[in-house]
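Support case: user asked for a sample of complex input and structure output to validate their parser. Sending the pair below.
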Amino acid sequence: MITFSDLGLKPEILEAIQEMGFENPTPVQEKTIPFLLSTNKDLVALAQTGTGKTAAFGLPILNDIDLKSKKVQALVLSPTRELAMQIAKDFTAYSKKTKGFKAISIYGGADAGAQIRELERGGQVVVGTPGRVLDLLKRKKLKLSDVQTLVLDEADEMLTMGFKDDLNDILDKTPSSKRTLLFSATMPKEIISIAKKYMSDHEEISVGAKNKGAENVNHIYYMVNAKDRYSALKRIADINPDIYGIVFCRTRRETKEVAEKLMNDGYNADALHGDLSQAQRDYVMTRFRNKNLQILVATDVAARGLDVNNLSHIINYNLPDELESYIHRSGRTGRAGKKGTSIIIVHSRELRKIKSLEKKVGKTIHKHDIPGGKEICEKQLYKLVDKVNNIQVEDEQIEEYLPKIYEKLENLSREDLIKHFVSVEFNSFLEYYKNAKDLNIGGGDREDKKSRKDRNSGVEFTRFYINVGTKNGINAATLIGLINDKTRNPRATIGRIDVMKGFSFFEYEAKLEDEVLKGFENAEEKGLKLLVEITKSKPIEKDDRGSRFGGNHSNSNKGRKRSDSRSSSDRSQKRRRRR
Ligand code: AMP
């Protein structure tokens, strides 16, 4: 195994990082540190936060600093003020045993005067956000003529935050002799073009595959009706009583609403979003960092500056518009060798997004069932019992109260006493979950399930909706032809088919349902974009076409008459392929 002393770092740096508890280099450090110490080439490194990337560039930069000069020799650009402060703090920690070294952080939203005074006193490394760096450059308070290394940290984040022009301006103002190190968790096209434009002969280092999620993250999804999203979130929190995580929402409004509801429902939660002042943001973040807050509800933008290890869960209350952001969200858990879980709450029409995400993450995203009331109550109850069991008893403090307490409880047996104590904390939970319904789509009684087991053949079918019907020239035979065309699996069984005027339903072997979703992805028929999705609507009975039909597609069913004679409902138990 490679050790830090094998990498060629100075003894005073080795001593400092040893005190920080760094025993062995992480993979990105193993690859980056010897490269940076032995060559002067540029570097593009694909690495997520949490992989140890700060030390990967920080340690070799510190190693090569000319400590006799107080001029800026390295500039690190970071997307947020919090990250800039963190990186400067890390440099200070690495240099604990190095005399005469100083790292300065400069960022917006704070007094520029104090930062200018720091710069005037001198420091070899400046870590800053692009806006403030450019501002102080223009005011000639920051001088970059001696810069030998420029680091673009979380380059993809800087671009999504709209710093592209600032970055270009800053890069133009640095000496052409410098080396550039670009760190990014993902590799969108813009990063590649920056690398091409500003880096001549660069090396590419990657830990893990490109644009892939962190290794230690387990990805799961729950499928619920959109209206049950919040109830599902509560159950996820309840089944994980020790949760320490971030709930990601899409908008500020949703963030506020979800956080307020959680707080009102007694959860240890708070919101982080752009409508808060910097002081309010700092307050929430500090509480969260110190684990005084268990659940942080946040927008992607607001959570960017938050650098917290040991998160147990990331919950996607709603998926981000840009699926790339999912990598960043989920990469906030499973850091520094720890395991983490990234949860996605979706409704049935979002299933295709899960498939696209699986490709991005490079892992299967497993479907789990939202736990039922009984399961949650059991988990909470045992957690409470463990807490009672493990609590540190302050004998001396409670001694004087005990006689009176014994007297008050003397009519209760040991069994009754246990029941009473447990009930104090637990009654509200039991009450809440007493008649809790099944939130899973396809949950509940069999009538309500998305799949149907054929009585004769025993085949389990999933029922699909498709947006073409008789008015598009579709009948049962042409629909089978279409399904055959898209799924290309002659062995799969097709079940019932109901063709209506503007749309149809068909059943397909449940265990092969992905074939249908994948096969019809981006499919067209005579210029019409085909939409196929899993439906919970029930098969149409002969005398019941007007009332039961529709399910999730009731809008498209408006005005249809009970005697729609063109619908062809085939109740044969199963169909073999005609191919
Ligand atoms: P980063 O990816 O730079 O945000 O680092 C993530 C966390 O891992 C930070 O808390 C670092 O202090 C820690 N860390 C970095 N390198 C090592 C190492 N070699 N051994 C142990 N912890 C490390």
